[in-house]
Structures are given as structure tokens and as C-alpha cells.
Amino acid sequence: MRLGKLKNRDFLTLLDYTPAEITYLLDLAAWLKQQKKAGVNHAAFPGKNVALIFEKTSTRTRCSFEVAANELGMHSTYLDPSGSQIGKKEAIADTARVLSRIYDGIEYRGYDQSIVEELAQYSDVPVWNGLTNQYHPTQILADLLTIREHFGTLAGKKLVYFGDARYNMGNSLMIGCAKMGMQFTACAPKSYMPEAALIEKCQKIAAQTGASLSFETDPLTAAKGADVLYTDVWVSMGEPAEVWQERIEKLSPYCVTEKLMKAANPEAVFMHCLPAFHDLKTTIGKEIGEKFGLDHMEVEDAVFEGKQSVVFDEAENRMHTIKAVMAATL
Ligand code: CP
Ligand code: NVA
């Protein structure tokens, strides 16, 4: 295992990583996945400890960090949204200096990207971004690994993101696709497109990697030639409930439907970072669905449950890729 290369690096956004480094992380994740499937012990980090700070809730990211740490031979401490002093009684800079005296690495999930950046600035150990309002880089690694496993390659593949393209998933997929030479399309209402400054940064990356970026308001046009149709919840964690009405009005035409899947390449896959509102079997899904007369939101149940859906491969890959990030940077 070549673990020296990225040692002590923070993992805050894929903007900070070169295509070669991203490929290295994907290769490492694939190798670690293989080791696990073959039942080979890969506990290469005995005695290491990692702190997992979650200011927002989580299933996949938390479980992936905990299991990955455990399988690498490390111990982890989970700090839940209410169980620490962070931000309330203790400044981020102080928290960073305290935790980096105790731990070998720190994961942070929370609100503004500036918080995880400050944490990294004051921390002596690697800091990993487990989702902020702006970016979700560990999710993108899992997505890239899933696409590569499915198609055998990333370069040239067309990924269309349907939904609120201004938030963490839209931004991060645009960066990931730009870095890996893919064709990225944000398909959203004009006012829900990524910020101009980020688009400009990604255009510069794309010019180096052979990637292309496009911005399309019509879902059927966007789906044409797509290899990956990707969506996310319409209202993200931490956003006020009042935004549901506007999001439903604006984003209903961008729901990933069977009709949209048929407009894409015949081998196209459906992806979603999860959790997904594909039916009314959740408290929020039921409440919002009944209020607005919907039986699903961002994706039709038939697509989510259909043959082209790879959402659970994607969820599994969260663990292997997070393990790679920790193994490479510790
Ligand atoms: N996709 C993802 O980050 O899921 P969790 O919110 O459950 O961690
Ligand atoms: N945009 C979503 C992603 C969840 C993984 C959110 O921030 O809630």
C-alpha cells in the first residue's frame, strides 16, 4: 500500500486535489474494497484515533467513517449534533487545537465551508469534510468509484445533475466531473445553477482535463446522451421548512422519471447520494407529500427501484472511499 503520498493532507474539497491524486484515492479504495471482500485483514493503523464531529445528522457518512476506522485498526469518537461544545461554548479554533492534541484525524460535517476550513487551519492533524453547505467531497469519491466500476472509465462519460445545482451536491459533482475529464450538465431552473465563480474555476480545470460543462434548463434535452442521471433532495439539511413550497414548484419538472431515463443512453444509470424521497415511507416524505399532493419528490419510485438504479452500490462505496481517504492522509 503506498500511503505516504497524501500524508497529513486535509480533505476539504476536491478542488484541492489533482486528477492523479483523485485517481490514486479511487485505486486505493478499489484495492481496500477487494481486501475486505477477500477477508484480508487491513488494520494498518493500530493505536490511531479519529474524532467524528457531526453538527448535522447522518447515516452513511457516520457509519462509513466508524466502520472504515474500525477496519483500519483505529478507534473513533462520535460527537453528535448536541453532544459537544463546538461553536456554542467553544470556538472552532480552540476546538481544533484541543482535538488535534488528542486525535490523529478529525472529520467534520456541518454548515458553512468556512467552518471546516478554520478547523483545518488550526488543526495539526488531517481534517476531512463530511459535508458542508457548499461541498460533499467524500460522496463524490464514492460516486466516481461507482461510475468507474460500472462503465470501466470516467473520462468522457456524461453525468447530468437534476435539481438544486447551487448546493453541496451540484457544486461537488461539477468539480469531480471537471477534474476527471467527464461531461457535466447541471439541469435546473436558471436561478438554481452553481455560482459563476465556481463555474469559472471548473471551466479552467475542464480546459486542462478535456472535461466539458453545460447548463441546461430543459430536462429532456439534458438527458439526451447521458450515462448518469443524478439527483438529490430538493431541500437540504439545515434549510428552513418554508423553502419546500418554492422548491416543489421550481423543481417538480426536474424529477427523474422513467420518461427521462428512456431519453438517456440505454445503459445509463440512476444515482442519488441518499437519503431519497422516492415514496411516502418517511415522516418528512409523508408530511410534505400529503401537503403538496405528491407521492414522490426528486425521483419516481420506479426509477429508484428500477434495474438502472445503482444507489446501493454507491452507498456501499462511501465506506471504501472514506477508508481510502483516511488511509492515504494519516
Ligand atoms: N449521502 C450522505 O451523506 O448520507 P448521510 O447524510 O446519511 O451521511
Ligand atoms: N444536499 C443534501 C445532501 C445529503 C447527503 C443535504 O445537504 O442535505
List keywords for this structure.
330 residues; alpha/beta; Rossmann fold; 2 domains; five-stranded parallel sheet; four-stranded parallel sheet; 13 helices; 9 strands; 13% strand; binds phosphoric acid mono(formamide)ester; binds norvaline
Q: Give the name of the CATH architecture of the largest domain.
A: 3-Layer(aba) Sandwich
Domain count, please report it. Answer: 2
Helices, by number, come to 13
Q: What's the level 1 CATH class of the largest domain? A: Alpha Beta
Strand order of the largest sheet: 7-6-5-8-9
Cα-atom Rg, whole angstroms? 19 Å
Name every ligand kind in the structure: phosphoric acid mono(formamide)ester, norvaline
Structural class: alpha/beta
Explain this structure:
This protein has 13 helices and nine strands. The chain has 330 residues and is α/β, with parallel strands linked by helices. It folds into two domains: 14-135 and 318-329, Aspartate/ornithine carbamoyltransferase (Rossmann fold); 139-316, Aspartate/ornithine carbamoyltransferase (Rossmann fold, 3-Layer(aba) Sandwich), CATH 3.40.50.1370. The protein has a five-stranded parallel β-sheet with strand order 7-6-5-8-9. Helix 5 crosses helix 6. The mean pLDDT is 96. Bound molecules: phosphoric acid mono(formamide)ester and norvaline (NVA). Phosphoric acid mono(formamide)ester binds at residues 58-61, 131, 139, 273-274. Phosphoric acid mono(formamide)ester (CP) is lined by residues 58-61, 131, 139, 273-274.
